[in-house]
Amino acid sequence: MPVPIYGNWTAVEGVKSVMRRYSVFTLLVLMLALAACGNGASSGGSTAPVVPPGTITGSVVGFKSGDRSSTTPEANIAVEAYTRSFPYIGPVTPDRPHPVAGAVTDARGHFQIDGLMPGHRYFLLFGMSTAKWVQLGTDHGATVSATVCTDCPLPM
Prior knowledge:
Layout: E1 5-6, E2 9-10, H1 24-45, E3 56-64, E4 67-73, E5 78-82, E6 101-104, E7 110-113, E8 121-126, E9 130-135, E10 142-149
Parallel strand pairs: 3-10
Antiparallel strand pairs: 1-2, 3-4, 3-7, 5-6, 5-8, 8-9
């Protein structure tokens, strides 16, 4: 027949419960310590900068066709922003739009494009082989990353 358990003690003489009693003081100290850790993180403990509205920041890394797992930062890659997409690989199309803004990656593969309309979507072209859509917020910009193949032949 099962033995009922009351609080931290069993009803059987000489058998101790595996539960431990914690004082209110110990729990209070633990809660204050956890709250202090949470407040430190929200008061500037984060290192991710907020991107201003109308700005896209990011990085471009490259890989060789034989080893996609090994990437390196790519310098001097043109990053262009467009208001609509288009076929960017293959034959040149007559209705390719003009970019509304652009930048070139630095030695660490980083770039920043400023002066875009907050709240709009932009088609970003990285070099000649990779593209993606980016949505800007009305109260913040966007951060993107792109991975490009450095030795892959482009289809014609």
